[in-house]
Amino acid sequence: MLFLKIPLLAVLLATGDNEDAFQEEISFKMIHSSSFYNNSWVKIQNSAWLGDLQTHGWDTNSGKIIFLYPWSKGNLSKEEIKDLEEFFRGFSIVMPQVIHRYASQWKFKYPFEIQITMGCELHPGGAIGSFYRFAYQGSELLHTQNNSLFPSPNGGTRAQDVYRLFNQNHANKKIVQKILSDTCPRLLLSILDAGKADLQRQVKPEAWLSIGSNPGPGRQMLVCHVSGLHPKPIWVKWMRGEHVQLGTQQSDILPNADGTWYLQVFLEVEATETSGLYCRVRHSSLGGQDILLYLKLPHNSMGWIILAVMVPLVLLTALAFCLRKRW
């Protein structure tokens, strides 16, 4: 696996306020996952991702790559795309056969999952490195180290056996090295350039507060919802004054159907300790103007309710006193 030093091209010299848009590490990864239900039934899925954005899918019936954006092809030629399709089509046929053959020897117990991730990553400064990982049931068996493939230290004899078989397939190994050292870096840089309008898209989030399920007597679960944001990185905290509240918990950041993101941030507090709490949202689309949502719990309206109940009681008591005195 080669480690390349490649100029960032015009994509990293984007004009205007977005000139630093790609100065953080970003990766392009191809993911192959196989679900082995038994020794004759396997479900195959292939996809490709630029960071957290899926850019390519896979049609299992035709064996064709699905380009999810007009710029997903980058600068790859038709011949290169065809070669990639043939590689993944053949890989998706041969790999399950090999796994079935060695499942008993490697002590793979049905049903199980195999995941192979390979790709390249662009570092700030222009260096591009490649990676390859092979995992069984979420446990890594093979990985790259110092730009070469090795069995994972915690993989035991199973990792050694898989590594030995991988090294024996020189033709497949050569193709993978070419994809990682040549095809992937060119595709990464070209789709960053071609897709920068979408990748640099800024969408302001919407935020609102709610009360979650009752966590216990005398306590409340406060929830800050943030939705519709793009890009994905965001900072959301429950605060009082300038102090972040301990116990703040954040959900996973989940995708919306329109390509934006959604998350929730929780804080469990004593019902009597809610005064001055607010949710603070920071995002690149806000231009430094954070969203501040101050908590307005029903305790204010509760005071009005209590007042509405007490006033008639006081009046009734006074009336009863007057009537008694008159009687």
UniProtKB/TrEMBL annotation:
Recorded protein name is T-cell surface glycoprotein CD1a-like
- Cite the GO molecular-function annotations of the record: endogenous lipid antigen binding; exogenous lipid antigen binding; lipopeptide binding
Q: What is its main location?
A: membrane
Signal peptide region: 1-16
For the keyword Transmembrane helix, the answer is: yes
Kindly give the PROSITE patterns that the UniProt entry links to this protein.
IG_LIKE (PS50835)
SMART domains attached to this UniProt entry: IGc1
List the GO biological process terms. antigen processing and presentation, endogenous lipid antigen via MHC class Ib; antigen processing and presentation, exogenous lipid antigen via MHC class Ib; immune response; positive regulation of T cell mediated cytotoxicity
InterPro entries per UniProt: Ig-like_dom, Ig-like_dom_sf, Ig-like_fold, Ig_C1-set, MHC_class-I_related, MHC_I-like_Ag-recog, MHC_I-like_Ag-recog_sf, MHC_I/II-like_Ag-recog
Source species taxonomy = Eukaryota, Metazoa, Chordata, Craniata, Vertebrata
Q: Name one GO cellular component term.
A: endosome membrane
Topology with respect to the bilayer: Single-pass type I membrane protein
Species in which this protein is naturally found:
Myotis lucifugus
Ig-like domain: residues covered: 185-285
Does this entry carry the keyword Phosphoprotein? no
- Transmembrane regions: 302-323
- Where in the cell is the protein located? Cell membrane; Endosome membrane
Enumerate the Pfam families for this protein.
C1-set, MHC_I_3
Q: What keywords appear on the UniProt entry?
A: Endosome, Glycoprotein, Immunity, Immunoglobulin domain, Membrane, Signal, Transmembrane, Transmembrane helix
Organism domain of life: Eukaryota
